[in-house]
Specification:
It comes from Clupea harengus. This protein has about 300 residues and is of the alpha/beta class. The chain contains 13 helices and ten strands. Helix 7 packs across helix 9. The chain binds adenosine-5'-triphosphate.
């Protein structure tokens, strides 16, 4: 990467007209600069994985801004069967934790352990199977919903697919569509709402039975009622499969469902505990976050939540 980059740089210096001719080259450099290093593949691929994740004293800054520490001695634990929520102001480092968990970048100090072994010692492909990340704006393929859910897990049965869709609270709306699971997400793309797309993406993540599920703002397009139903369904799956869930969300309705809440600000854990514990901290950061959201909750009060039978 370095060689390629320097070779082209030399070209650029000596032949300005070449630079002009390949307009947009800056964009390529921007991309090359940003792309993180690919670590050597590990060897571990144990048959049984519990899904215990531990960030131990992790300090990290992005290669592009080496002087700005984004995570400063962060320690965090994800436990099987539990949902841990990361909350805090924008820029606090929540998504950066996900980037590190996905091994896009390496901690500068400290380490990330999976079942007690460094994340780097596991095989890439193995980790891809075991860690599933759903982001805020998932993309659907112009294929049937069935193919979208089974993507990457083509050997899954229809029963597996339905189970995954149920755990993502997607089964009910899919079966109400005229073509059900055969609905073409391409042709009917405009009829699949943002919230429905997010649920299909969660189902796609669940079909591989990950041991670690990361929801990075992955339910943000759902109304509070549907979101609650998703979390209810996910809770069942989480207990059954003993999956560790890392939730990043801005809405209290999602966060308060977590077993453990970590308030992250400026790359540091400022507070952690359960919702009930954290709201009791006088002038606490989480308590303040809850207060701010109360108005919105009051506005929705009385609507109640009735999840459809799936
Ligand atoms: P939000 O709630 O807005 O998603 P966050 O808590 O997830 O925020 P991060 O996305 O982890 O925060 O960002 C933390 C800091 O890292 C921010 O200052 C951001 O600008 C910076 N950052 C994120 N990605 C990169 C990158 N690829 N290169 C350089 N800096 C980055």
């Amino acid at each position: 990467e370095l060689q390629f980059s320097s070779a082209v740089e030399v070209l650029m210096n000596y032949y300005p007209h070449v630079k002009k001719a390949i307009g947009g080259s800056e964009k390529i450099f921007e991309y090359v600069d940003r792309s993180p290093e690919i670590p050597p593949d590990g060897t571990l691929a144990p048959q049984k994985l519990n899904g215990n994740v531990e960030f131990q004293n992790v300090t990290f800054s992005y290669p592009k801004r080496p002087d700005t520490a984004i995570l400063k001695g962060l320690s965090l634990q994800l436990k099987p069967g539990q949902m841990t929520a990361l909350v805090g102001p924008s820029g606090g480092g929540k998504s950066t934790c996900v980037n590190l968990l996905e091994r896009f970048y390496q901690p500068e100090q400290g380490c990330i352990l999976l079942d007690g072994e460094p994340l780097l010692s596991y095989k890439d492909q193995y980790l891809h199977q075991k860690i599933s990340v759903v982001c805020q704006e998932p993309k659907l393929f112009a294929r049937s919903l069935k193919e979208n859910i089974k993507y990457g897990k083509e050997d899954a049965t229809d029963e597996d697919m339905i189970q995954a869709a149920k755990s993502a609270y997607a089964h009910d709306f899919i079966t109400k569509l005229q073509d059900g699971y055969d609905t073409d997400a391409g042709a009917k793309g405009d009829r699949v709402s943002g919230g429905q797309k997010q649920r299909i993406a969660i189902a796609r993540a669940l079909i591989g039975k990950p041991k670690i599920l990361v929801l990075d703002d992955a339910t943000s397009s759902l109304d509070t009622k549907s979101e609650e139903c998703v979390f209810e369904a996910l809770a069942e799956m989480r207990k059954k499969q003993q999956c560790s869930v890392l939730l990043i969300a801005h809405r209290l309705s999602a966060v308060e469902k977590a077993d453990h809440i970590v308030f992250l600000q400026d790359g540091e854990v400022k507070e952690e505990g359960t919702h009930d514990q954290l709201v009791q901290i006088e002038e606490g950061l989480y308590a303040e976050f809850v207060k701010k959201q109360n108005t919105a909750i009051h506005r929705n009060a009385g609507e109640g939540t009735i999840c459809e039978e799936q």
